[in-house]
Specification:
It is a single chain. Helices cover about 60% and strands about 15% of the residues. With about 400 residues, it is α+β, with helices and mostly antiparallel strands. It folds into two domains: about 90 residues, no CATH class; about 190 residues, no CATH class. Strand 7 and strand 8 form a beta hairpin. Helix 3 packs antiparallel against helix 4 and helix 8 crosses helix 11. The two termini are about 45 Å apart.
Amino acid sequence: MRKKLFKYLSFGTMAVIIVAMMAATVLERLHGTPEALRWVYHNPVFMILWAVAALSGLFYLLEIGTQKRFFTFLLHVSFLFILLGALVTFLFGESGTISLREGEIQSAYEQDSGDSVTLPFGIRLEEFAIDYYPGSRMPSDYRSAITFMPEGRAVQISMNHIAKYQGYRFYQADYDEDLKGSILSVSHDPWGVGITYTGYILLLLSMLGFFFQKDTAFRASLQRVLQEGRKSRLRRFLLWTFAVLAIALCVLLILQLGIFGKPLMPVLRSPLLYIHVISIMMSYTVFLLVALIGVVGVCAPSAETRERLKDVSLSILYPGVFLLTFGTFLGAVWANISWGNYWAWDPKETWALITLLVYSFALHGGVLKPFRNARFFHWFAIGAILCVLITYFGVNLILGGMHSYA
C-alpha cells in the first residue's frame, strides 16, 4: 500500500509540475516575467509540489530497495541535493547590484527587493573598460578593475571571470553610458552554493557509474540489441539507424554552431559554451531518432518487432537523457559563474527541464506499467519529440527570453 502511495504521489506530482511549468512559460509570454514568478515559480504551492515529489520519491526508492543499486540510488539522491541547494539559496541567499564610479569607494549594495545592505568592506572602481572585436565596435568583453578596501586587494572582473571576497561574489553586470562607472551583481550564498555543487558532483559521478552497473534496464536492452544484431535484417536496420543519427547530429551541430562563426556576445565567450551546446544537440538528435524508431514501431506488423525496436530505443535513450541532463546542469553552473545564479526560469531553461522530465518517465518502465507496453512506448516517443521542437524552435519563435538566440 505504501509503495503504491509513494509511487503515485511522486510521479503524479511530477506530472503536475511539468504542466505548471508549461503554463508558466505561456503566462510569462502573455503577462511578463513578474507574473510567472508570482503565480508559479516563486509560489509556495509550486515549491511544496517539488518537496512532495522529492520526498515521496525518496521514500519510494527506499521501499523498493533501490539503495542496493548504488549508482541508481545516488543518481536520484543527487537531485535531492540540487533541490535542497536551490531551497537554501532561495530562503537565505542574498543578491543585488552595486553601482561604482571610478575613483569612488562604495560599501553598500541594493538588494533585489530594493533594500540597501552595507558590506563589511569597501569597493573602489579603479577603471572600467570595454574590449572590442578587431575592426568593429562590437564588444568582446567588459572589464572592471576594482580594489577591496581597506585591505587594498586589487582584482579584475570581467564576463565569466568573477571576484570572491569574504563570502561575497561579484559579477560584471552592466556599465554607465559615459564608461566611467560599472554595475556589479552581488551574491552572498555560502551554504546554497556548497549544497548545490555537491549535488552536481554526485549527479556526474552517478551518471558515469550507472553505465557500469549491472542489472539495469539499459544493460538488458543493450544486451538484447547486440544479440539480435547478429541477425542480418536487424543489423541492417541498426546500421541505417546510426547512420541517420550521425547525419542528423552533423546537421544540428552545423546549424547550432553557426553562432560560433561570428563574433559572440561577451557572456558567450566561454569554453563551456561548446560543451554545453554539443551535449544538448547530441541529446536532441537521440530523441529525434527515438521518435523515428517510434514511427516504425507503431507501424510494425508484429509484437516481437515492436519489442525489438523498443530495446533499440532504450539502448540509446538512456545516454540521450543523460546528455541532456549533463548539458542542462552544466548550463546552470555556467550561469552561476557568469551571473551569480543557477536558474532564472528563462523559457529555454524551463523547456529544457520539461523535456528532461518528460523523457525520464520513459526510463522508468520497471515501475510505470504503461511503458512496458512497446506500442505505448513508441507512441510516447513520438509525442515527446514535441517538447524538443518547442525547446529548440518554439521558444525562439514564440516564447522569447534571454536564450532566444540559441
